[in-house]
User: Which sequence fits this backbone?
Protein backbone atom coordinates (compact mmCIF):
# COMPACT_ATOMS: atom_id res chain seq x y z
CA UNK A 1 0.00 0.00 0.00
CA UNK A 2 1.35 3.43 -0.87
CA UNK A 3 1.87 6.22 1.61
CA UNK A 4 -0.76 8.30 -0.13
CA UNK A 5 -3.25 5.48 0.42
CA UNK A 6 -2.19 5.26 4.08
CA UNK A 7 -2.72 8.99 4.54
CA UNK A 8 -6.11 8.91 2.82
CA UNK A 9 -7.20 5.92 4.92
CA UNK A 10 -6.12 7.50 8.19
CA UNK A 11 -7.69 10.85 7.30
CA UNK A 12 -11.01 9.28 6.30
CA UNK A 13 -11.01 7.06 9.40
CA UNK A 14 -10.46 10.13 11.59
CA UNK A 15 -13.33 11.92 9.85
CA UNK A 16 -15.72 9.00 10.26
CA UNK A 17 -15.04 8.89 14.02
CA UNK A 18 -16.10 12.53 14.51
CA UNK A 19 -19.75 12.67 15.57
CA UNK A 20 -22.11 15.47 14.67
CA UNK A 21 -22.10 18.26 17.22
CA UNK A 22 -18.86 17.27 18.92
CA UNK A 23 -16.23 19.84 19.88
CA UNK A 24 -13.02 18.76 18.21
CA UNK A 25 -9.40 19.87 18.69
CA UNK A 26 -6.05 19.16 17.08
CA UNK A 27 -2.66 20.64 17.94
CA UNK A 28 0.69 21.23 16.23
CA UNK A 29 2.01 18.92 13.48
CA UNK A 30 -1.45 17.49 12.78
CA UNK A 31 -2.30 17.84 9.06
CA UNK A 32 -4.42 14.69 8.82
CA UNK A 33 -6.69 15.65 11.75
CA UNK A 34 -7.04 19.20 10.38
CA UNK A 35 -8.19 17.87 7.02
CA UNK A 36 -10.32 15.10 8.57
CA UNK A 37 -12.27 17.68 10.57
CA UNK A 38 -13.08 19.61 7.38
CA UNK A 39 -14.14 16.36 5.72
CA UNK A 40 -16.40 15.36 8.60
CA UNK A 41 -18.00 18.81 8.63
CA UNK A 42 -18.88 18.42 4.96
CA UNK A 43 -20.41 14.96 5.49
CA UNK A 44 -22.04 13.59 8.62
CA UNK A 45 -20.82 16.10 11.22
CA UNK A 46 -21.91 19.49 9.88
CA UNK A 47 -22.43 20.77 13.43
CA UNK A 48 -19.09 19.65 14.80
CA UNK A 49 -17.27 22.55 16.43
CA UNK A 50 -13.66 22.95 15.33
CA UNK A 51 -11.14 24.60 17.65
CA UNK A 52 -7.37 24.79 17.18
CA UNK A 53 -4.18 26.60 18.21
CA UNK A 54 -4.80 29.15 15.46
CA UNK A 55 -7.53 30.43 17.75
CA UNK A 56 -10.59 30.75 15.52
CA UNK A 57 -13.73 28.63 15.84
CA UNK A 58 -15.09 26.66 12.86
CA UNK A 59 -12.68 27.95 10.28
CA UNK A 60 -12.89 26.74 6.70
CA UNK A 61 -9.36 26.95 5.33
CA UNK A 62 -8.97 27.50 1.59
CA UNK A 63 -5.57 25.80 1.84
CA UNK A 64 -3.33 24.11 4.38
CA UNK A 65 0.29 24.80 5.28
CA UNK A 66 2.57 21.83 4.61
CA UNK A 67 4.77 22.98 7.49
CA UNK A 68 2.47 23.86 10.39
CA UNK A 69 -1.00 23.28 11.83
CA UNK A 70 -0.86 26.38 14.01
CA UNK A 71 -0.95 28.41 10.81
CA UNK A 72 -3.11 31.43 10.04
CA UNK A 73 -4.81 29.50 7.21
CA UNK A 74 -6.61 27.61 10.00
CA UNK A 75 -8.35 30.86 10.97
CA UNK A 76 -9.91 31.50 7.58
CA UNK A 77 -13.65 32.22 7.77
CA UNK A 78 -13.69 31.80 11.55
CA UNK A 79 -15.91 34.45 13.10
CA UNK A 80 -15.08 34.17 16.77
CA UNK A 81 -11.90 33.81 18.81
CA UNK A 82 -11.26 30.87 21.13
CA UNK A 83 -7.57 30.76 22.04
CA UNK A 84 -5.58 27.73 23.09
CA UNK A 85 -5.77 28.63 26.77
CA UNK A 86 -9.57 28.49 26.51
CA UNK A 87 -9.38 25.12 24.75
CA UNK A 88 -7.37 23.66 27.63
CA UNK A 89 -9.88 25.07 30.10
CA UNK A 90 -12.72 23.62 28.05
CA UNK A 91 -11.15 20.18 28.27
CA UNK A 92 -10.31 20.60 31.96
CA UNK A 93 -13.97 21.12 32.82
CA UNK A 94 -15.05 18.11 30.79
CA UNK A 95 -16.50 20.05 27.88
CA UNK A 96 -14.16 19.04 25.05
CA UNK A 97 -15.31 15.97 23.11
CA UNK A 98 -12.43 14.97 20.85
CA UNK A 99 -8.68 15.64 20.85
CA UNK A 100 -6.42 14.26 18.13
CA UNK A 101 -3.04 13.37 19.63
CA UNK A 102 -0.03 11.32 18.70
CA UNK A 103 3.00 9.71 20.30
CA UNK A 104 6.43 8.48 19.33
CA UNK A 105 5.45 5.44 21.37
CA UNK A 106 1.94 4.24 22.20
CA UNK A 107 1.27 1.31 24.51
CA UNK A 108 -1.53 -1.24 24.79
CA UNK A 109 -3.53 1.02 27.08
CA UNK A 110 -3.36 3.92 24.66
CA UNK A 111 -0.87 5.84 26.78
CA UNK A 112 1.75 7.83 24.90
CA UNK A 113 5.37 8.93 25.07
CA UNK A 114 6.51 12.14 23.42
CA UNK A 115 9.20 12.96 25.98
CA UNK A 116 12.24 10.76 25.47
CA UNK A 117 13.64 7.52 24.12
CA UNK A 118 15.71 5.99 26.89
CA UNK A 119 15.42 7.59 30.31
CA UNK A 120 13.89 11.02 30.87
CA UNK A 121 16.96 12.40 32.65
CA UNK A 122 19.57 10.90 30.34
CA UNK A 123 17.73 10.38 27.08
CA UNK A 124 19.09 8.54 24.08
CA UNK A 125 16.81 10.78 22.04
CA UNK A 126 15.09 13.83 23.45
CA UNK A 127 11.66 14.08 21.79
CA UNK A 128 9.63 17.29 21.28
CA UNK A 129 7.49 16.86 24.41
CA UNK A 130 3.87 15.96 24.83
CA UNK A 131 2.53 19.44 24.00
CA UNK A 132 -0.94 19.58 25.55
CA UNK A 133 -1.45 15.84 25.87
CA UNK A 134 -0.69 15.34 29.58
CA UNK A 135 -3.46 17.81 30.39
CA UNK A 136 -5.87 16.95 27.58
CA UNK A 137 -5.85 13.17 27.48
CA UNK A 138 -7.16 12.66 31.04
CA UNK A 139 -9.98 15.18 30.62
CA UNK A 140 -11.13 15.06 26.99
CA UNK A 141 -14.04 12.69 26.43
CA UNK A 142 -12.48 10.88 23.46
CA UNK A 143 -8.79 10.85 22.68
CA UNK A 144 -8.10 9.77 19.11
CA UNK A 145 -4.43 8.90 18.57
CA UNK A 146 -2.65 8.23 15.32
CA UNK A 147 0.72 7.03 14.09
CA UNK A 148 2.19 7.29 10.63
CA UNK A 149 4.08 4.01 11.01
CA UNK A 150 2.95 0.72 12.44
CA UNK A 151 5.86 -1.18 13.95
CA UNK A 152 7.11 -2.60 17.24
CA UNK A 153 9.28 0.45 17.90
CA UNK A 154 6.25 2.71 18.00
CA UNK A 155 3.53 0.40 19.29
CA UNK A 156 5.18 -0.92 22.42
CA UNK A 157 4.43 -3.06 25.42
CA UNK A 158 6.24 -0.63 27.70
CA UNK A 159 6.74 3.10 27.16
CA UNK A 160 10.15 4.60 27.91
CA UNK A 161 8.33 7.53 29.53
CA UNK A 162 4.60 7.87 30.20
CA UNK A 163 4.02 11.42 28.98
CA UNK A 164 0.24 11.23 28.91
CA UNK A 165 -2.47 8.76 29.83
CA UNK A 166 -6.23 8.87 30.00
CA UNK A 167 -9.18 8.67 27.70
CA UNK A 168 -7.68 7.19 24.56
CA UNK A 169 -10.58 5.66 22.67
CA UNK A 170 -8.94 4.91 19.33
CA UNK A 171 -5.49 4.49 17.82
CA UNK A 172 -5.28 4.74 14.03
CA UNK A 173 -2.21 3.50 12.10
CA UNK A 174 -1.44 2.82 8.43
CA UNK A 175 -2.46 -0.81 9.00
CA UNK A 176 -5.28 -0.80 11.49
CA UNK A 177 -7.53 0.83 14.03
CA UNK A 178 -7.39 -0.13 17.70
CA UNK A 179 -10.24 0.62 20.05
CA UNK A 180 -10.17 0.51 23.80
CA UNK A 181 -12.19 -2.26 25.39
CA UNK A 182 -14.91 -1.18 27.77
CA UNK A 183 -13.94 -3.91 30.21
CA UNK A 184 -10.25 -3.40 30.94
CA UNK A 185 -8.89 -0.29 29.16
CA UNK A 186 -6.77 -2.42 26.80
CA UNK A 187 -6.60 -1.57 23.13
CA UNK A 188 -8.13 -4.21 20.89
CA UNK A 189 -7.92 -4.64 17.14
CA UNK A 190 -11.08 -2.94 15.89
CA UNK A 191 -10.47 -2.75 12.14
CA UNK A 192 -7.86 -3.47 9.51
CA UNK A 193 -7.50 -1.33 6.40
CA UNK A 194 -8.25 -3.02 3.05
CA UNK A 195 -5.49 -5.44 2.05
CA UNK A 196 -4.09 -5.78 5.59
CA UNK A 197 -4.25 -9.10 7.43
CA UNK A 198 -4.67 -9.63 11.16
CA UNK A 199 -1.36 -11.53 11.16
CA UNK A 200 0.40 -8.49 9.71
CA UNK A 201 -0.95 -6.37 12.56
CA UNK A 202 0.04 -8.91 15.20
CA UNK A 203 3.56 -9.23 13.75
CA UNK A 204 4.13 -5.48 13.74
CA UNK A 205 2.64 -4.61 17.11
CA UNK A 206 4.69 -4.62 20.31
CA UNK A 207 1.75 -5.19 22.66
CA UNK A 208 -0.49 -8.28 22.61
CA UNK A 209 -3.22 -7.95 19.98
CA UNK A 210 -6.67 -9.13 20.89
CA UNK A 211 -9.61 -8.74 18.53
CA UNK A 212 -12.44 -6.40 19.43
CA UNK A 213 -15.90 -8.00 19.39
CA UNK A 214 -16.84 -5.71 16.50
CA UNK A 215 -13.66 -6.33 14.52
CA UNK A 216 -14.18 -5.67 10.81
CA UNK A 217 -12.42 -4.66 7.63
CA UNK A 218 -12.47 -0.88 7.24
CA UNK A 219 -15.08 -0.03 4.60
CA UNK A 220 -13.14 1.40 1.65
CA UNK A 221 -13.09 5.14 1.04
CA UNK A 222 -16.19 6.14 -0.90
CA UNK A 223 -16.09 8.16 -4.12
CA UNK A 224 -17.72 11.05 -2.29
CA UNK A 225 -15.07 11.00 0.45
CA UNK A 226 -12.27 10.79 -2.12
CA UNK A 227 -13.66 13.71 -4.12
CA UNK A 228 -14.15 15.83 -1.02
CA UNK A 229 -10.62 15.06 0.15
CA UNK A 230 -9.28 16.25 -3.17
CA UNK A 231 -11.38 19.40 -2.97
CA UNK A 232 -10.50 20.19 0.66
CA UNK A 233 -6.79 19.44 0.30
CA UNK A 234 -5.83 19.79 -3.37
CA UNK A 235 -2.15 20.30 -2.46
CA UNK A 236 -1.94 16.96 -0.64
CA UNK A 237 -0.86 18.41 2.69
CA UNK A 238 -2.30 15.29 4.34
CA UNK A 239 0.67 13.40 2.84
CA UNK A 240 3.22 15.69 4.50
CA UNK A 241 3.55 13.51 7.59
CA UNK A 242 4.82 10.70 5.38
CA UNK A 243 7.67 12.51 3.62
CA UNK B 1 8.14 59.97 26.91
CA UNK B 2 8.47 57.49 24.10
CA UNK B 3 9.35 53.91 25.07
CA UNK B 4 10.92 53.25 21.70
CA UNK B 5 14.44 51.85 21.84
CA UNK B 6 16.85 50.23 19.46
CA UNK B 7 17.04 46.44 19.45
CA UNK B 8 20.61 46.60 20.77
CA UNK B 9 19.64 48.82 23.69
CA UNK B 10 16.70 46.62 24.69
CA UNK B 11 18.70 43.39 24.45
CA UNK B 12 21.59 44.88 26.40
CA UNK B 13 19.19 45.18 29.35
CA UNK B 14 18.79 41.38 29.46
CA UNK B 15 21.06 39.79 32.05
CA UNK B 16 22.67 36.38 31.65
CA UNK B 17 20.63 33.65 33.40
CA UNK B 18 17.39 35.59 32.89
CA UNK B 19 14.07 33.78 32.74
CA UNK B 20 12.44 34.89 29.49
CA UNK B 21 8.99 34.17 28.09
CA UNK B 22 8.83 34.33 24.31
CA UNK B 23 5.54 35.02 22.55
CA UNK B 24 4.16 33.31 19.49
CA UNK B 25 3.64 29.63 18.87
CA UNK B 26 5.89 27.18 17.02
CA UNK B 27 7.09 29.03 13.88
CA UNK B 28 4.50 31.77 14.20
CA UNK B 29 5.12 35.32 15.41
CA UNK B 30 8.03 34.44 17.66
CA UNK B 31 10.40 37.38 18.36
CA UNK B 32 13.22 35.97 16.21
CA UNK B 33 14.97 39.33 15.61
CA UNK B 34 15.22 39.72 19.39
CA UNK B 35 16.50 36.16 19.81
CA UNK B 36 19.14 36.76 17.14
CA UNK B 37 20.30 39.91 18.94
CA UNK B 38 20.52 37.91 22.20
CA UNK B 39 22.89 35.60 20.33
CA UNK B 40 24.89 38.50 18.84
CA UNK B 41 25.37 39.95 22.31
CA UNK B 42 26.55 36.55 23.58
CA UNK B 43 23.91 36.17 26.30
CA UNK B 44 24.51 33.09 28.43
CA UNK B 45 22.47 30.52 30.33
CA UNK B 46 19.06 31.86 29.49
CA UNK B 47 15.97 30.01 30.70
CA UNK B 48 12.97 30.24 28.38
CA UNK B 49 9.24 29.79 28.89
CA UNK B 50 7.19 28.83 25.84
CA UNK B 51 4.11 26.73 25.20
CA UNK B 52 5.26 25.38 21.81
CA UNK B 53 8.68 26.53 20.61
CA UNK B 54 10.68 25.97 17.46
CA UNK B 55 13.36 28.13 15.84
CA UNK B 56 13.59 30.50 18.83
CA UNK B 57 14.56 27.75 21.29
CA UNK B 58 16.65 25.80 18.80
CA UNK B 59 18.67 28.87 17.79
CA UNK B 60 19.46 29.66 21.42
CA UNK B 61 20.54 26.03 21.88
CA UNK B 62 22.67 26.14 18.73
CA UNK B 63 24.37 29.33 19.95
CA UNK B 64 24.95 27.84 23.44
CA UNK B 65 22.91 30.59 25.04
CA UNK B 66 20.33 28.25 26.56
CA UNK B 67 20.31 26.81 30.07
CA UNK B 68 16.79 25.47 30.42
CA UNK B 69 13.33 25.37 28.89
CA UNK B 70 9.86 25.37 30.42
CA UNK B 71 7.63 24.21 27.56
CA UNK B 72 5.18 21.64 26.30
CA UNK B 73 6.65 21.12 22.85
CA UNK B 74 9.86 22.07 21.07
CA UNK B 75 9.93 21.05 17.42
CA UNK B 76 9.52 22.14 13.84
CA UNK B 77 6.14 20.44 13.34
CA UNK B 78 6.11 18.76 9.93
CA UNK B 79 9.74 19.77 9.31
CA UNK B 80 10.98 17.54 12.10
CA UNK B 81 12.81 17.60 15.43
CA UNK B 82 14.60 20.60 16.93
CA UNK B 83 18.03 19.04 16.53
CA UNK B 84 20.14 21.54 18.48
CA UNK B 85 17.74 21.57 21.39
CA UNK B 86 17.65 17.76 21.25
CA UNK B 87 21.46 17.52 21.29
CA UNK B 88 21.72 20.13 24.04
CA UNK B 89 19.41 18.08 26.24
CA UNK B 90 21.09 14.80 25.37
CA UNK B 91 24.56 16.07 26.27
CA UNK B 92 23.36 17.68 29.47
CA UNK B 93 23.78 21.33 28.47
CA UNK B 94 20.06 22.10 28.46
CA UNK B 95 17.62 21.16 31.21
CA UNK B 96 14.06 20.36 30.13
CA UNK B 97 11.38 21.33 32.57
CA UNK B 98 8.77 19.47 30.57
CA UNK B 99 5.31 20.88 31.00
CA UNK B 100 2.04 20.28 29.25
CA UNK B 101 1.27 23.49 27.34
CA UNK B 102 -1.70 23.91 29.68
CA UNK B 103 0.51 23.84 32.76
CA UNK B 104 2.81 26.52 31.33
CA UNK B 105 -0.31 28.65 31.05
CA UNK B 106 -1.36 27.65 34.59
CA UNK B 107 2.04 28.65 35.98
CA UNK B 108 1.84 32.00 34.21
CA UNK B 109 -1.68 32.50 35.53
CA UNK B 110 -0.44 32.00 39.10
CA UNK B 111 1.84 34.99 38.53
CA UNK B 112 -1.02 36.96 37.01
CA UNK B 113 -3.18 36.24 40.07
CA UNK B 114 -0.32 37.03 42.45
CA UNK B 115 -0.37 33.57 44.04
CA UNK B 116 2.45 31.02 44.43
CA UNK B 117 0.83 28.11 42.60
CA UNK B 118 -2.11 27.22 40.42
CA UNK B 119 -4.41 24.19 40.62
CA UNK B 120 -4.82 22.36 37.32
CA UNK B 121 -6.91 19.44 36.11
CA UNK B 122 -4.41 17.23 34.32
CA UNK B 123 -1.46 14.81 34.52
CA UNK B 124 -3.50 11.85 35.79
CA UNK B 125 -1.49 8.74 34.87
CA UNK B 126 1.45 10.78 33.54
CA UNK B 127 4.98 10.24 34.85
CA UNK B 128 5.86 13.90 34.24
CA UNK B 129 4.93 15.10 37.77
CA UNK B 130 7.37 12.65 39.33
CA UNK B 131 10.06 13.19 36.68
CA UNK B 132 10.02 16.98 36.64
CA UNK B 133 8.88 17.87 40.14
CA UNK B 134 6.80 20.62 38.55
CA UNK B 135 3.44 19.14 39.47
CA UNK B 136 2.55 18.36 43.05
CA UNK B 137 -0.69 17.52 44.78
CA UNK B 138 -2.63 19.27 47.48
CA UNK B 139 -5.85 18.41 49.21
CA UNK B 140 -8.54 20.97 48.52
CA UNK B 141 -9.33 22.59 51.90
CA UNK B 142 -13.00 22.88 50.92
CA UNK B 143 -13.82 19.56 49.25
CA UNK B 144 -10.82 17.41 50.27
CA UNK B 145 -10.35 16.53 46.61
CA UNK B 146 -6.77 15.68 45.57
CA UNK B 147 -5.71 18.48 43.23
CA UNK B 148 -2.64 18.90 41.05
CA UNK B 149 -0.83 22.22 41.38
CA UNK B 150 2.00 23.84 39.44
CA UNK B 151 4.31 26.58 40.73
CA UNK B 152 4.06 30.15 39.48
CA UNK B 153 6.07 30.97 36.37
CA UNK B 154 7.14 34.58 36.59
CA UNK B 155 9.26 35.66 33.64
CA UNK B 156 11.95 38.24 34.33
CA UNK B 157 11.16 39.52 30.87
CA UNK B 158 8.43 38.64 28.39
CA UNK B 159 9.26 39.43 24.78
CA UNK B 160 6.52 39.39 22.15
CA UNK B 161 6.43 40.36 18.50
CA UNK B 162 3.38 42.35 17.39
CA UNK B 163 2.08 43.69 14.10
CA UNK B 164 1.73 47.25 15.33
CA UNK B 165 2.83 49.10 18.47
CA UNK B 166 2.79 52.72 19.55
CA UNK B 167 5.35 54.77 21.44
CA UNK B 168 3.55 54.04 24.73
CA UNK B 169 3.84 50.27 24.31
CA UNK B 170 0.26 49.53 23.32
CA UNK B 171 0.43 46.69 20.83
CA UNK B 172 -1.85 44.98 18.35
CA UNK B 173 -1.60 41.45 17.07
CA UNK B 174 -3.44 40.76 13.84
CA UNK B 175 -4.45 37.13 14.02
CA UNK B 176 -3.86 34.51 16.70
CA UNK B 177 -2.72 36.08 19.95
CA UNK B 178 -1.53 32.69 21.25
CA UNK B 179 -0.35 33.04 24.88
CA UNK B 180 1.18 36.49 24.41
CA UNK B 181 -1.30 38.40 26.57
CA UNK B 182 -0.92 35.88 29.40
CA UNK B 183 2.88 36.07 29.17
CA UNK B 184 2.72 39.88 29.23
CA UNK B 185 0.56 40.00 32.34
CA UNK B 186 2.68 37.42 34.17
CA UNK B 187 6.06 39.12 33.62
CA UNK B 188 8.17 41.49 35.68
CA UNK B 189 9.16 43.39 32.52
CA UNK B 190 7.77 43.38 28.98
CA UNK B 191 9.48 44.18 25.70
CA UNK B 192 7.51 44.44 22.46
CA UNK B 193 9.05 44.23 19.02
CA UNK B 194 6.76 45.29 16.19
CA UNK B 195 6.53 45.39 12.43
CA UNK B 196 5.35 48.97 12.59
CA UNK B 197 5.31 51.72 15.17
CA UNK B 198 2.58 54.33 15.01
CA UNK B 199 1.56 57.37 17.00
CA UNK B 200 -0.72 56.50 19.93
CA UNK B 201 -3.32 58.90 18.51
CA UNK B 202 -3.38 57.06 15.18
CA UNK B 203 -4.94 53.67 16.05
CA UNK B 204 -7.76 52.41 13.84
CA UNK B 205 -7.80 48.99 15.51
CA UNK B 206 -7.91 48.20 19.22
CA UNK B 207 -4.61 46.99 20.68
CA UNK B 208 -4.82 43.92 22.94
CA UNK B 209 -1.56 44.55 24.81
CA UNK B 210 -1.84 47.43 27.31
CA UNK B 211 1.09 49.80 26.98
CA UNK B 212 1.34 50.58 30.67
CA UNK B 213 2.65 47.04 31.22
CA UNK B 214 5.27 47.45 28.52
CA UNK B 215 8.74 48.80 29.22
CA UNK B 216 10.15 49.19 25.75
CA UNK B 217 9.09 49.07 22.13
CA UNK B 218 11.33 48.18 19.22
CA UNK B 219 10.77 48.53 15.53
CA UNK B 220 11.63 45.17 13.98
CA UNK B 221 10.40 44.74 10.43
CA UNK B 222 10.29 41.06 9.52
CA UNK B 223 11.04 40.53 13.20
CA UNK B 224 9.50 37.04 13.24
CA UNK B 225 11.14 35.82 10.02
CA UNK B 226 11.86 33.20 8.85
CA UNK B 227 8.80 32.36 10.92
CA UNK B 228 5.45 33.91 10.07
CA UNK B 229 3.75 37.12 11.09
CA UNK B 230 0.22 36.94 9.70
CA UNK B 231 -1.05 38.45 7.52
CA UNK B 232 2.23 40.11 6.46
CA UNK B 233 4.34 37.05 5.76
CA UNK B 234 4.13 33.28 6.07
CA UNK B 235 6.82 30.79 7.16
CA UNK B 236 9.84 30.98 4.84
CA UNK B 237 10.09 27.23 4.47
CA UNK B 238 13.28 27.38 2.41
CA UNK B 239 15.07 29.44 5.04
CA UNK B 240 13.90 27.17 7.86
CA UNK B 241 14.97 24.04 5.99
CA UNK B 242 18.34 25.68 5.28
CA UNK B 243 18.70 26.36 9.01
CA UNK B 244 17.84 22.76 9.87
CA UNK B 245 20.42 21.47 7.37
CA UNK B 246 23.21 23.78 8.54
CA UNK B 247 22.45 25.54 11.80
CA UNK B 248 26.11 26.46 12.39
CA UNK B 249 26.24 28.63 9.25
CA UNK B 250 22.97 30.26 10.21
CA UNK B 251 24.29 31.11 13.68
CA UNK B 252 27.55 32.43 12.19
CA UNK B 253 25.55 34.63 9.86
CA UNK B 254 23.49 35.92 12.78
CA UNK B 255 26.63 36.68 14.76
CA UNK B 256 28.28 38.40 11.82
CA UNK B 257 25.30 40.51 10.91
CA UNK B 258 24.82 43.98 12.23
CA UNK B 259 21.35 44.20 13.70
CA UNK B 260 19.08 45.40 10.93
CA UNK B 261 16.98 47.56 13.21
Assistant:
Amino acid sequence: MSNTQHADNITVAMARFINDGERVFHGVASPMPAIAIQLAKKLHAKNAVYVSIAGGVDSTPSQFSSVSTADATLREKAVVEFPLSDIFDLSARGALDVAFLSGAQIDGQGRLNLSAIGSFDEPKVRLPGGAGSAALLPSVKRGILWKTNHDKRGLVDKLDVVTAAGNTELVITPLAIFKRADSDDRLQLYATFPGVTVEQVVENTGFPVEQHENYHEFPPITDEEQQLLAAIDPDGVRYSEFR
Amino acid sequence: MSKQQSLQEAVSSIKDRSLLALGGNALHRSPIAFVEELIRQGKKELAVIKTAGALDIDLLAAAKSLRSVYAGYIGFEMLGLAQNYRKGVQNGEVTVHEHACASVIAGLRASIYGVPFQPINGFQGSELPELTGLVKYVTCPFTEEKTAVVPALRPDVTVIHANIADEKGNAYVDGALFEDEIMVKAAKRVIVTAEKIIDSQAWDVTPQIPGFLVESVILAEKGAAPGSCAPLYTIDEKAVVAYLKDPASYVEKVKGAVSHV
Notes: Chain B has a mean pLDDT of 97. Chain B touches chain A through 53 residues (CB under 8 Å). The longest helix of chain B spans residues 101-113.
